Amino acid sequence: MSESFQTIQSIGSNALLKKITNFDAYKNKNVIRSIGDDAAVIKESNDSLILLTSDTYVEGVDFDPTYTPFHHLGYKIVSAGVSDIYAMNGMPEAVLINLAVPNRMSVQMIEDLYKGIYAAGKNNEVEVVGGDLKANHANLVVSISVYGKAENDSITYRKGANEGDAICVTGDVGGALAGLRILMREKKYWEEHGDESVQPELGDYQFVVKRQLVPEARRDLIEILKKEGIVPTSMIDITKGLVSEISALSDASELGAYIYQAALPIAVETRQVADEMQEDVDRYALFGGEDLEIMFTLSEKKVEEFVKHFSDFVVIGRMVAKEEGMKMQTAEGDVVSFDDLS
Amino acid sequence: MSESFQTIQSIGSNALLKKITNFDAYKNKNVIRSIGDDAAVIKESNDSLILLTSDTYVEGVDFDPTYTPFHHLGYKIVSAGVSDIYAMNGMPEAVLINLAVPNRMSVQMIEDLYKGIYAAGKNNEVEVVGGDLKANHANLVVSISVYGKAENDSITYRKGANEGDAICVTGDVGGALAGLRILMREKKYWEEHGDESVQPELGDYQFVVKRQLVPEARRDLIEILKKEGIVPTSMIDITKGLVSEISALSDASELGAYIYQAALPIAVETRQVADEMQEDVDRYALFGGEDLEIMFTLSEKKVEEFVKHFSDFVVIGRMVAKEEGMKMQTAEGDVVSFDDLS
Q1: Residue A273 to residues A176, A183, A289, A292: CA-CA distances in angstroms?
Q2: A31 contacts in B (CB within 8 Å)?
Q3: What are the chain B neighbours of A9 within 8 Å (beta carbons)?
Q4: Distance from CA of A153 to the nearest CA of B (A)
């Protein structure tokens, strides 16, 4: 290969994305928001907006078939897809599913995958309206595109948070990573003991394993926000981990953030797994992704109002001036910068 | 593997699709047309419709990097994607691009791919509004989703043709297959002679190679139809070959078709390749796919009107009663059934 060959690994996917999105390209005047938020936003009519988002899952990279039942995979892919629409304070309407399928996979496996897709479709009221099915000589690659809608007066971006706003997080975080740790331990056990017929005892870990394999997107939050006429100032879903999402939201809003470690919402089952693994559960909460919870910001006053109608969220901190940076107050009372966390 | 293991090959992808689409699934009341046409159709407002379509391309299955420059691949993927929107008499607005990229590919290769994507985006006035970029340890898999719009009073489906309607085809067909035959011959030559530094002499075959590598979608047809206020009774784009598309359109319209072999639009360059390969050029025209031309039906009267404004199409036959089946009159005057063609 020539000297000019530059691997993607050497520059990283973010730098590659930056290169690609810097090209001179056609701009559609109806496009309000392109790459850079949870979903693209396109003007539809005077008071309505179209949302589009897309994800790809690669066998052996994004999922491991050893411990991922295919109906769970299908379910999770749809949950994660619609979660990006909810994260814009929108509602999903339809999905397209694209598969590149190796022939070593059976008809039953693909049927299982679709059973999971349809199950999540029902729970999120989205129809599978199309897609593509291709043979692959290598591994399974699944892409999903989601089409949704939002209203002009309630669409919520990553940008828009105000200084002083409370940072709210639904449900609990770190559970999906705890589930992954358990599944990876089981896989290692199977590999070392070579007896695949012995089914793992996952009963004790049901909560975290479900968080990893069949996560639910937070449609309920969006429904209640709409019903109560409350619009968050900014919003993002938690797929890459709390620290990453707080940073993205703060950057977009051109603000800093101040977080209380003691306020992180962590399930008791997640704590138990971390204890068993002799790991720090706060790291699960801060860096574990895939929880599909929603982070949103609201003024203190609105929080007081909203909590009367919806109780499954906590305030983990507040937005501060950009100059104050990204900081966390630890349980011991120390203040650490996000830069020192990773 | 257990006795119940059923390979996808053993039942075929059509049977698999049928199994999958027969599952009990959520139906969105706004979805007018789901799987089964060139694009899904969703109600937007009183006079406007949303179109969604999606395709996947697998390295080594759908494209061969040996003779496919990546900027051509990017261009073709967008052309083929928007062609499905034009085939509904709609206009594309935006695309999402999903990549699973092996690390052996360089930054430059992905940049080239995107240069082609953006070039076709400009020509078709679509913006790349998002997507996903994932690592793959195996081959390159590219998915594209296209979002477009159509009007309630001009959307055109595969169904809708009337008995007696003329079957019209834009441009010429069989050229993309002729180009593929040339590229495959060149590849064989390289493999046998082992000298990749010798660039092939493709100058003589420029027309057909372009038809294969950088096909243009027929935006011009849709623009002129709109300008002249003419709405075809049915429409489909030619991606799987003429015989396949005529059959799909006739099935959807619950009619038969009668085709004149002598009327098939074949470029002189395509004939030359077939001659050189000692193959039947009519088979290229009937079974070669990927031309991205549009087949549409119009009453005889409307054809007379339309031809005054647009000349790049020919009438290749007419729609007949379902009972008359699918037939072609050969250049020699014999009448053969489509069933005897393949």
Answers
A1: 11, 11, 16, 19
A2: 93-94, 127, 129
A3: 103
A4: 18
Give the gap in angstroms from C-alpha A199 to the nearest C-alpha of chain B: 17
* CB-based contact, B83 to chain A, within 8 Å: no
Nearest CA in chain B to A122: B26
Per-residue pLDDT tens digits for A217-271: 999 999 999 999 999 999 999 999 999 999 999 999 999 999 999 999 999 999 9
Whether B130 sits inside 8 A of A52 (CB atoms) is yes
* Close Cβ partners of B340 (under 8 Å, ≥ 6 residues apart): none
Which tens digits make up the pLDDT trace of B146-182?
999 999 999 999 999 999 999 999 999 999 999 999 9
Tell me: pLDDT of A112 over 80. Answer: yes
- Location of each CATH 3.90.650.10 domain in chain A: 166-340
User: Taking CB atoms and an 8 Å limit, are B23 and A115 in contact across chains?
Assistant: yes
Amino acid of residue A104: R
**Residue B296 bridge partners (DSSP):** B168, B235
Q: CB of B236 within 8 A of CB of B38?
A: yes
Strand order in the sheet with A127-136: A31-33, A40-43, A48-58, A141-151, A91-102, A127-136
Q: How far apart are CA B113 and CA B141, in angstroms?
A: 12
Cα–Cα distance measured from residue A32 to residue A38, given in angstroms and rounded to the nearest whole number: 13
> Amino acid identity, residue B20?
I
Better pLDDT: B336 or A13: B336
ipTM of the complex: 0.91
Q: Is B1 helix (H, G, I), strand (E, B) or coil?
A: coil
- Number of helices and strands in chain B (H, E): 11, 13
Q: What fold characterizes domain B166-340?
A: Phosphoribosyl-aminoimidazole Synthetase; Chain A, domain 2 (3.90.650)
Measured CA to CA, the distance from residue B290 to residue B211 in angstroms comes to 8
Portions of chain B given CATH number 3.30.1330.10: 8-151
Residues contacting B127, CB < 8 A, separation 6+:
A25, A26, A27, A28, A31, A34, B93, B94, B95, B121
> With an 8 Å Cβ cutoff, is A271 touching chain B?
no
Beta-strand pair B256-260/B91-102: unpaired
- The CATH homologous superfamily to which domain A8-151 belongs is PurM-like, N-terminal domain (3.30.1330.10)
Q: Distance (Å, rounded) from C-alpha A127 to C-alpha A132?
A: 15
Closest approach of A311 to chain B, Cα-based (Å): 29
Task: Find the farthest-apart pair of alpha carbons in chain A and give their distance in angstroms, rounded.
Answer: 64
φ, ψ for residue B238 (rounded to 5)?
-95, 95
Shortest CA distance from A113: residue in chain B = B20
Is A114 an interface residue toward B (CB < 8 Å)? yes
- Record the pTM: 0.93
User: Other C-beta atoms within 10 Å of A210: how many?
Assistant: 17
How many other CB atoms are there within 10 angstroms of residue A313's CB atom? 22
